[in-house]
Amino acid sequence: MDEYEQQYRCLKAHGFNAWTGDGYERAYRQLVNTLDKLMVKNLLPAAKASVLELGCGNGAMSSRYMAKNGYSVYGVDISPTAVKWAAEDFSRLGLTGKFSEGDVCHLGQYQSQMFDMIVDGSCLHCLINEQRHQCFQEVKRLLKPEGRFIISTMCGLPQSPEDIQNYDYVNHHLIRNGSPWRTLKPLPILQEEILQERFTIVDLEKNTNPWWDHATIVCRC
Ligand SMILES: C[S@@+](CC[C@H](N)C(=O)[O-])C[C@H]1O[C@@H](n2cnc3c(N)ncnc32)[C@H](O)[C@@H]1O
Fold first, then answer.
1. Residue 185 is part of a domain; what is its CATH number?
2. Residue 1 above 90 pLDDT?
3. What's this model's pTM, rounded to 2 decimal places?
4. Which residues, judged by CB distance below 6 Å to any ligand atom, belong to the binding site of ligand 1?
5. Buried residues in 176-191 as b, exposed as e (16+ CB within 10 A)
6. Residue 9 C-alpha to ligand 1 middle, in angstroms?
7. What is the pLDDT of residues 122-158, one digit of tens each?
8. Angle ∠(77,81,82) on CA atoms, nearest 5
9. How many domains would you assign to the chain?
10. Of 104, 151, 176, 218, which one has the fewest beta carbons inside 10 Å?
C-alpha cells in the first residue's frame, strides 16, 4: 500500500475531514480566499466549465469549491480510499462530481482537450523528477486551447532545522527515509520549469509560511 492510501485510511478512521486533518477549516478558508480573488480577476472560466482536480484527495478542497460554484467537476487521485470518500461526501452534500482512481502522470482515461481548467490539488509537489514532466504533458493534452492550469504548490526553501537537514539543494527534494519525498523549488526555479514546459504564467500569488512558502500560479498553454 502506498503512503497516500495509508494516510487516507488513517484520516478516515480517525474522523478527520480531509488531508489537512485538524487544519482543514483554515486551509479551506484560505483556498476560498485565493480562488475568489482569481474569480474577481476574471482568471477562472465561467460556471458549467469542465474542471479536473489533480490529486483531488477526498474532494474537500478545490473540487468542493468548484462544484459549489457550478462547474462540472472531475477529480483524480492515486488513493482508492480518497476517491471513494470524495464520491460519498459529494453525494451527502448534494454536489455533483466524477472521481476516479489514477496517476496524474498517465491520464489516458480522459479525452484530449476535455477540460476548460485543470487545478493542481497540491499534487505537483508530490511528483519527483520525470514524473513532473509527464504530468505537465498530460495537462497540455487534456486542456482546451484557451484552457487554464492552476498550480497550487509548495515553493521556496525549507525553514525548519529538520527539513533543512533533509533537503537536497541540488535536486530540490525533501528527503524522507532515504528517498525524495517532495519537490520543493525556490520560486524562480519553479517559474523556469513552468516556462520550459511551454506554459505561459498569467498570474502568481505567494503565501509565506514559517516552514516553506506556497504559490498559486495561473498558467495557460
Ligand atoms: C497534499 S495532498 C492534497 C489532497 C487534496 N487536493 C486536498 O487539498 O485536500 C496530495 C494528493 O495528491 C495525491 N497524489 C500524489 N501523487 C499522485 C499521483 N501520482 N497521481 C494521483 N494522485 C496523486 C495524494 O493521494 C493526495 O491526495
1. 3.40.50.150
2. no
3. 0.98
4. 4, 18-20, 55-57, 60-61, 76-79, 82, 103-105, 121-123, 126
5. eeeeebbbbbebeebb
6. 14
7. 999 999 999 999 999 999 999 999 999 999 999 999 9
8. 45
9. 1
10. 176
